[in-house]
Amino acid sequence: MARVVVLGTGTGVGKTYVSTTFVRELARAGAASVLGLKPVESGVSDDPAGTDAQLLADASFHVKPPTPLRRHSFREPVSPHLAARAAGTTIKVADLVEWVVTNEDDCPLPYVTTLISQYSRWSVIETAGGAFSPLSDTTTCADLAEALEPCLWMLVGRDALGTLHDVAATTRALKRVPDVVVLSAPEAPDASTGTNANEMLRLGLAARVIELSRGGSRPLANLATRWMTKHSRDDSPPTKS
Question: What pTM value is reported for the model?
């Protein structure tokens, strides 16, 4: 199974929209199955309808959604490590990896894909908050991404003023370069919107950058087709874009 981990430059940058859209575009690109997961989520109410994990489950294709929808679910809309502390528990990266792998293994390989490639099955794992949001006193979402290797890393940021700093700071702190940076259009565009992608490439902040208009999906559709084609053909774990 091919795996994509979605990280953010911060909170509220559009990770869930990007994640759910990419899940759907992988299915449209010909994936045999696509599983969308969010292992940790805070700010969860009694109504699951609009939660990130539920949106990912609804977008998933030819798979059984996990039960429960998350490994850790917290009511308080605060950093996961603070929510876990208040709940009297600890989030462990190894436990999250085991939960992800178990849910991936629960997605049987459709018969037809046995004639093609095991990498026609995909999972998309959305992390909580920013790449360095704490999961515990000693671990962050970046540590979870590393523990889930081999996988493709998608870093999401806002296409707005300040994103050059946010992407530079995040990518320089990560232990490897993200396979793609996705710039999500802000609700209120500013003078920098539409210029940031080219600047990131010119400054060498990222190897591949795509811009996503508000409510748009075409760049993610193109990326899904590119990755599907490459990794189905190579029949090898997706570690490079």
Answer: 0.92
